[in-house]
Design brief:
This protein is of the alpha+beta class and 238 residues long. The chain has 2 domains: 106 residues, Translation Initiation Factor IF3 (2-Layer Sandwich), CATH 3.30.110.170; 96 residues, Protein of unknown function (DUF541), domain 2 (Alpha-Beta Plaits, 2-Layer Sandwich). It has 5 helices and 9 strands; from the N terminus they run H-E-E-H-E-E-H-E-H-E-E-E-H-E. A 5-stranded antiparallel beta sheet has the order 3-4-2-5-8. Strands 1, 6, 7 and 9 form a 4-stranded antiparallel beta sheet that branches. The longest helix has 26 residues. The radius of gyration is 32 Å and the shape is elongated. The chain starts with a helix and ends with a strand. 21% of the residues are buried.
Length: 238
């Protein structure tokens, strides 16, 4: 009799666990959707710097400060505002310069280098060449490149996100039809971190000075910004 009762209890527990397992492990279709939206750049960020090298820190710092102040004045003169100019790097280092004397002996001289870089945001892209030329004429001697962006990138991401969801829904419908099942409830939706690819260009000092020597000024053209979105949807299916 005890064996019969035990068997009945085991059967009852098994019957109760089956629906629970079914709920924990529903039949799911999982799909991803992707979309990319391109838009024109409307903002540029320039990296401009002044490097000075002198036998003493004081000399290097004094010359660097004078040149950087002249650069800032030149930028202000063409309409760049204070909030669009930010120090991106300031560094002081020492180094040795090696040479050979007339007697064939190695000569070592200690120099100090001061590097001061600013990040300049330009909202009127037609001014980029003028900004570079003005900065270099005022005393800037390094430029580490230009990156382009757009103030409408967030709007572009929203559009890409919508298209990515539509792409995923279409894929789910195709999969369900091919498998001869019907889609049920959408049980989860997740968006991966968006990715923005901005157009960027390296710019060497030789190019800047070559452009100026030809009396045509520095010419810079921008590219498009691409914003991508990816989502993952999970559907129950019957």
């Amino acid at each position: 009799m005890k064996k019969v009762i035990a068997l009945c209890l085991a059967a009852l527990l098994l019957a109760c666990s089956i629906p629970a397992l079914a709920e924990e492990n529903p039949r799911l279709i999982r799909v991803s959707g992707n979309a990319v939206v391109s838009l024109a750049a409307d903002t540029a960020t320039l990296q401009i710097g002044v490097n000075t090298k002198k036998p003493t820190v004081q000399e290097a710092q004094k010359e660097n400060a004078a040149l950087m102040n002249a650069v800032l004045d030149a930028l202000h003169a063409i309409g760049i505002e204070d909030q669009d100019i930010m120090t991106s790097q300031f560094n002081v280092s020492s180094q040795y310069d090696y040479s050979t004397s007339s007697f064939g002996q190695e000569v070592r001289k200690l120099y100090y280098e001061v590097q001061n870089n600013v990040s300049v945001t330009v909202h009127d892209l037609s001014l980029i060449g003028q900004v570079l030329d003005a900065a270099m004429e005022a005393g800037a001697n390094t430029s580490y490149g230009i990156s382009f962006s757009s103030t409408k990138q967030n709007e572009a991401y929203q559009k890409a996100l919508t298209r990515a969801v539509e792409d995923a829904m279409q894929k789910a419908s195709v999969l369900a039809a091919a498998a001869h099942v019907s889609l049920g409830t959408l049980v989860s939706i997740n968006a991966n971190q968006n990715q923005t690819y901005t157009a960027g260009y390296g710019l060497s000092n030789s190019y800047i000075y070559e452009a100026k020597s030809m009396d045509r000024g520095t010419v810079i053209t921008s590219g498009d910004i691409t914003v991508s979105a990816e989502v993952v949807l999970e559907y129950e299916f019957n």
